[in-house]
Amino acid sequence: MTESRQGPLWLLRILSAIILAATGGIHLFLIFDGVGGLLGTLFVLNAIAAFVLAVGMLVLHGTWLRVATVLSLLFLIASLVALLLALTVGLFGITEVWSFTLVPETVVIEALGIVVLAVTSGVAIRRGARVA
């Protein structure tokens, strides 16, 4: 494909990587802010996954890029659903409150990320289908 046709996909990939890195950064910050126990362990795993997926959004191509976009979308959906469950009915015995550190910001970033990654996944899959 020509560089001009790659432009929108590259922009979406960069935005997706930024949002994934922001999500990982929030969870990493919360670990250093004192969140421990089971929640701390889950936050470490979340941060690692977010950073790995962010790098994948920037370096992968072809089928692997399409896999990474879909996995990133599912990751953010799962992360947001876990937070919303913790805010409402609890998750693994963990209940969260809206006023806890970075909760509103996390909801906004992850919701925005879901939209961006849904578009990125759609574009990447359509481009792959046209090439194949």
Task: Describe the fold and architecture.
By secondary structure, this protein is mainly alpha-helical. The protein has 4 helices and no strands.
Mean pLDDT: 91
* Unreliable segments of 5+ consecutive residues: none
Number of contiguous helices = 4
Principal-axis shape equals elongated
Give the tally of β-strands: 0
Structural class: mainly alpha
Radius of gyration of CA atoms, rounded to a whole number: 16 Å
SSE sequence, one letter per element = HHHH
The major beta sheet can be summarized as: none
Distance between the termini: 12 Å
| DSSP strand content | under 5%
Helix content: over 70%
Descriptive tags:
single chain, 132 residues, mainly alpha
Task: Write a concise synopsis of the structure shown.
With 132 residues, the protein is mainly α.
Write the layout of secondary structure elements.
Elements: H1 3-32, H2 37-59, H3 62-88, H4 103-131
Helix pairs in contact: 1-2, 1-4, 2-3, 3-4
